[in-house]
């Protein structure tokens, strides 16, 4: 009888997942996508791509997120650009999203990479409280104007609860991030990614309602169930701060399965939000005065989408995991395991592009330059064009989680959840 109940429960779980996420279940769970060793849209990856590492201490490792830190002159022109990396070499011992929760002690690291000369250096945490954990996940830093310090916000998966840490970084001292405060809220159930709307406000995604932090067996079962069934328990919120640190929280979008990466368009009129277990990016029109959102489009992508970032042209760079079991194997430290990588650009289509009936348009072939076309795994979107910018079986670069594209130079920067170093691909 017990075995029958267990079998029935597993069947219902599988049926729910297939019903809600049949496409990603077929292509990204049950089958391993036939990806090449590596492909870069800008040319031969062996000639155009290289990996930046910390060859001494190996702390540019397991960097889940990266973000541009732009320096503007007094007139608002771009004078310099850096890449800020948030890395946690201890992720295989402490990951509040995927597990395990074994050892929260070793802190993560920040690194700063100069796009001008290719140099990189560690960023120390100045005045950071003793005994306070640091496990960086999503983060974003506000641009510096005319040499002024920038506010930096980082999601921190600390041992007791997930918090958001506020720092300032001064262009005159780019080697240190000065701690300002720790933000907490009962609404910060499972913060994952954030996107700034001002120096003191941001959208933040919450990926799960049931988390690994639940006691005993509940923490092992319920979040996995929420993930596999693609339950719509995630959400997006908007947070603003007063000068004294008083926090104001407002829900912006509810009912998102595994809400993950979030990004605000360059003109501030749109917000994009990743739904990992649906393999889709949701787009919203944004009211810049109230920060309220109105849903507009949902665009399928050929992987479990992780982080998303707009480039300066308004194209969205989405990055993720084409085969979830492989990612789990890497997280579990299985010998020889690698996880595939995939990044795409998602660009709005002109309305005049729609010549065929919607059903025919969705079945069309697109992304034809890539060795494995995204159209093999995801239907075409009526609203956006999806094109592969990088893909790998994992043998060259594994577990991609975030990509940035510099629109001025065309350079692509990629990091992996369980990969060492940052891949830099120059066209």
Write the layout of secondary structure elements.
Blueprint: H1 2-30, E1 39-40, H2 45-48, E2 49-52, E3 63-72, E4 78-87, E5 109-114, E6 120-126, E7 136-141, E8 144-145, E9 150-157, E10 162-170, E11 173-183, E12 191-198, E13 201-206, H3 216-228, E14 234-241, E15 247-256, E16 259-264, E17 270-275, E18 280-286, E19 293-300, E20 304-310, E21 316-321, H4 324-331, E22 341-348, H5 358-362, E23 384-392, E24 400-405, E25 412-416, E26 422-425
Parallel strand pairs: 3-8, 6-11
Antiparallel strand pairs: 1-23, 2-26, 3-4, 4-5, 5-6, 7-9, 9-10, 10-11, 12-13, 13-14, 14-15, 16-17, 17-18, 18-19, 20-21, 21-22, 22-23, 24-25, 25-26
Key terms for this structure?
427 residues; mainly beta; 5 helices; globular; five-stranded antiparallel sheet; nine-stranded mixed sheet
């Amino acid at each position: 009888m017990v075995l029958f109940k267990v079998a029935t429960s597993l069947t219902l779980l599988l049926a729910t997942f297939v019903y809600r996420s049949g496409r990603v279940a077929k292509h990204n769970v049950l089958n391993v996508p036939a990806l090449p060793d590596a492909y870069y849209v800008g040319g031969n990856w062996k000639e155009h791509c290289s990996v930046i590492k910390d060859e001494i201490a190996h702390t540019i490792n397991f960097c889940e997120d990266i973000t541009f830190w732009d320096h503007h002159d007094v007139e608002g022109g771009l004078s310099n650009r850096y890449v800020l990396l948030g890395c946690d070499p201890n992720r295989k011992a402490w990951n509040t999203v995927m597990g395990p929760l074994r050892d929260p002690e070793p802190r993560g690291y920040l690194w700063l990479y100069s796009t001008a000369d290719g140099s990189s250096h560690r960023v120390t945490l100045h005045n950071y409280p003793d005994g306070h954990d640091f496990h960086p996940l999503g983060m974003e830093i506000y641009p510096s104007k005319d040499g002024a310090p920038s506010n930096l916000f980082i999601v921190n998966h600390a041992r007791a609860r997930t918090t958001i840490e506020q720092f300032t970084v001064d262009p005159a001292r780019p080697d240190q991030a000065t701690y300002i405060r720790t933000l907490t809220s009962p609404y910060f159930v499972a913060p994952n990614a954030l996107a700034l709307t001002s120096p003191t406000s941001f959208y933040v995604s919450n990926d799960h309602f049931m988390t690994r932090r639940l006691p005993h067996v509940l923490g092992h079962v319920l979040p996995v169930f929420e993930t596999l069934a693609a339950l719509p328990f995630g959400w997006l919120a908007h947070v603003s701060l007063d000068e004294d640190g008083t926090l104001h929280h407002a829900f912006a979008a509810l009912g998102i399965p595994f809400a993950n990466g979030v990004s605000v368009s360059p003109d501030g009129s749109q917000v994009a939000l990743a739904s990992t277990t649906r393999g889709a990016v949701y787009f919203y029109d944004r009211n810049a005065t109230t920060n309220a959102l109105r849903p507009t489009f949902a665009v399928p992508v050929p992987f479990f989408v992780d982080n998303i970032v707009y480039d300066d042209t308004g194209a969205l760079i989405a990055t993720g995991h084409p085969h979830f079991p492989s990612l789990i194997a890497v997280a579990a430290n299985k010998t020889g395991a690698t996880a595939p990588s995939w990044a795409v650009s998602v660009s709005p289509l002109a309305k005049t592009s729609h010549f065929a009936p919607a059903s025919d348009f969705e079945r069309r072939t697109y992304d034809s330059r890539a060795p494995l076309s995204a159209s093999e795994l995801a239907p075409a979107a009526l609203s956006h064009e999806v094109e592969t910018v990088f893909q790998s079986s994992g043998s060259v670069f594994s577990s991609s989680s975030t990509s940035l594209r510099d629109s001025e130079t065309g350079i692509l920067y990629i990091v992996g959840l369980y990969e060492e170093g940052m891949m830099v691909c120059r066209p």
